[in-house]
UniProtKB/TrEMBL annotation, chains A, B:
It comes from Aminipila luticellarii. Residues 137-455 form the Aminoacyl-transfer RNA synthetases class-II family profile domain. Its EC number is 6.1.1.22. This is Asparagine--tRNA ligase. The gene is asnS. It is found in: Cytoplasm.
């Protein structure tokens, strides 16, 4: 096909194209005309903003046809780029030739008007063409890349931990079963139970809830590693913050303690924010104006200030002292609820807060026991508007302490033979955390529902597209 | 913890540390000593090579203890970096202080000797500590990053297409079912069938075999997009080239035809090769010496030459003319087998070859019908040593032609309502391809078995770790 120029390029290097002929392609966002001339907003997806095409009865031979070009039709436009210093947009294209490369039926659902986010979810295959979702999904892409860049620049090894897993290693909630057995009539053993030895993997398998344990094996070889992949929770919770399929980033670092862990997490969050402000200024301006007023100031503020760091015990004291009445009463030992987390980060500190050293009873078996024998070296990061965005810990590297803890919890050592091996052979101090990818997207865009930052969200009773 | 310097840094910027005191941490790879002095190869995972530590009876206070430090033990070493121009390694560390940070049991399975790849698969949690797998998994990480960089630098949007899917859209082979129903005693409808409306997603769901159809929805919004995620095939094939869980990259580009598609794929492969040669010279040297002699020459060659491009019809003619006897006889219309593909790329062209325009009968429904009505605008990339590494096509953007083709194949339009919508609303020419991530890793490392380029491979009857 004849080479065209992307609209992003015209915006970023306008000088190089001013008063020159350019060839562009894109889709009609709006089209209005009189009988003498018309204006088309053309968007090619390469850039948040559209380009204004001016076409005239005297300028193109198929004026009448173009004047009827519907929204969503695809055009090729050849014309001259002209600066428009007095207008809203910095330049426009005076068309010499306009060709319709693809039409659009009149029942196109994304006509020029405000649509509810709920309606747009039902047309998830078209919503990236709207301003809001064009911005959301470009930012999502940029944040993903920023994360890779952040870790790769520091020589971290990206590891693809498995999605199919043979055991509920983390014990982190309900899992989805994977099977190729005939559900109607599965093979059974002599005692009538389902014979999973005949299943595809020769045993019961599920979708992973976390790649952490496998990531630890790599951290104890490469020192600095991270995962970035999909994870799954079969929890029947229909909230604005939970999805059944979501992406997670799990860095794991050997020769590191809890402070190193928090330093890394804080640097990562700041890097991400800096990256999107730098690389998606138009999208961030849009969120700031139409989705979450004050967003850019808030994010800018975060880059230049230290995150707060308090212990769980201090957090409980602060909540008790606040005099605020919570739905779930506060006392030492409880798992902090969203209302508590948000109060800490939004009302008390008004910025991101690490809460550390939680009671061992409410945390996972692999977290390192503190010397008080009551708390573990965990660190959760709470941020305003979203709540918990990161959960992390120093891992229990002491074989005997880990075995004792597993016994307390009824976990069988043999199910974790390879995980225990890591404690036998050079099992140094190490730490890591999990970042919920959709949570950070919500945080940097101001979008309030996880369904609106996932391309095709999977939630209870929903797996469309 | 007291800050140390990574061994990579010592190798890359030796000048800055020569004759200075440094603090490093790492794991013992070898340790040999007399009663006066000893040598430890210390590796911290940050770099392919280890550092030689020299420790002396007179130099450190715990000489006897360190002399017994076993393989895999973790050490902290403080000492002076001394250049060693006559030795194999460019420098060594003269130890002043050595602390054992973690011991290692004597039954450590990775003792200093040659191990078979098969044995190492059984200890997949430890094999990244071996030279071979240290090299494989760092290269894997770098190739992943190179792919992101390649696309992001060209303004492609990274899209996470869903893993859980409600239908076998591509019809590309057997799929894994996902369920939360009680397998022993599933709910049934009145007529005795399993009641999937009570399953987690309210219907039958599976693990995705491809994100292409969803990626097309994004390409027709953002123009240039790519996926990079896990995909699954429940095929019971135990070969060196197939895994049940593998990663795939699927770029999709609007306003593009088959030639644009091949240009993009060729540029991507060259970019990847260039990136690993540049960023993993030690690892590539290792593969070249111990895994696949001539690898670096071959890869260097590929960067500087055009890929061949022939039609399927030409490929069949060449195979017939070759006089070679194949296990599967060649005639126009057959699906090319691995033996044919490898003959074309390894014997005839001795370089990567795109084969285009396959008979429609052996290709997927969404590929664009050529004017001959017999072939479709497909392009597969074959490479020496691996065979097919990329499968791509221009997509059928013409609504009526697509509907007719789906009817021929017995596909129901209503199952693809959203995919058909793309043809109704600005459905321009577009094209894309899928790159098997493990295949490219095998190609650039020379590793012969897909199980040895996946961190924790999943294959029939195998889902360990």
């Amino acid at each position: 096909m004849e080479k065209d120029i992307q609209i992003r390029e015209l915006y970023r290097n306008t000088d190089a194209y001013a008063d020159k002929e350019v060839l562009i392609r894109g889709w009609v966002r709006t089209n209005r005309s009189s009988n003498k001339f018309g204006f088309i907003e053309l968007n090619d997806g390469s850039f948040f903003k559209s380009v204004q095409i001016v076409y005239e009865q005297d300028g193109i031979e198929n004026f009448d046809k173009i004047a009827k070009a519907p929204i969503a039709a695809a055009l090729m436009v050849r014309g001259t780029l002209v600066r428009t210093p007095e207008a809203k947009q910095p330049f426009e294209i005076k068309a010499k030739e306009v060709v319709i490369e693809a039409g659009a039926d009149a029942d196109y659902p994304l006509q020029k008007k405000r649509h509810s986010l709920e309606f747009l979810r039902e047309i998830a295959h078209l919503r990236p063409r709207s301003n809001t979702f064009s911005a959301v999904f470009r930012v999502r892409s940029l944040v993903a890349y920023a994360i890779h860049q952040f870790f790769q620049e520091q020589n971290f090894v990206y590891v693809h931990t498995p999605i199919v897993t043979g055991s509920d290693c983390e014990g982190a909630g309900e899992m989805f079963r994977i099977t190729t057995l005939d559900m109607e009539n599965p093979p059974r053993t002599e005692d009538g139970k389902i014979d999973y030895s005949q299943d595809f993997f020769g045993k019961e398998t599920s979708l992973t809830v976390s790649g952490q344990l496998e990531a630890e094996t790599f951290a104890l070889a490469f020192r600095n590693v991270y995962t970035f992949g999909p994870t799954f929770r079969a929890e029947n919770s229909n909230t604005a913050r939970h999805a059944s399929e979501f992406w997670m980033i799990e860095p794991e670092v050997a020769f590191a303690d809890l402070t190193d862990n928090m330093d890394l997490a804080e640097a990562m969050i700041k890097y991400i924010i800096h990256y999107v402000l730098e690389n998606a200024p138009e999208e961030m301006e849009f969120f700031n104006s139409f989705v979450d007023k004050g967003l850019i100031d808030r994010l800018t503020n975060i880059i230049s200030n230290d995150f707060a760091r308090i212990s769980y015990t201090e957090a409980v004291d602060l909540l008790l002292q606040s005099g605020k009445e919570f739905q779930y009463p506060v006392e030492w030992g409880i798992d902090l609820q969203t209302e508590h987390e948000r109060y800490i980060t939004e009302e008390i500190f008004k910025k991101p807060v690490f809460v550390t050293d939680y009671p061992k009873e409410i945390k996972a078996f692999y977290m390192r026991l503190n010397d008080d024998n009551k708390t573990v070296a965990a660190c959760d990061l709470l941020v305003p508007g979203v709540g918990e965005i990161i959960g992390g810990s120093q891992r229990e590297e002491r074989y005997d302490v880990l075995v004792a803890r597993m016994k307390e919890l009824g976990l069988k050592e043999e199910d974790y033979w390879w995980y225990m091996d890591l404690r036998k052979y050079g099992g140094v101090k190490h730490a890591g955390y999990g970042l919920g990818f959709e949570r950070i997207i919500m945080y940097v865009t101001g979008m309030g529902n996880i369904r609106d930052v996932l391309p095709f969200p999977r939630t209870p009773k929903t797996a469309e597209f």
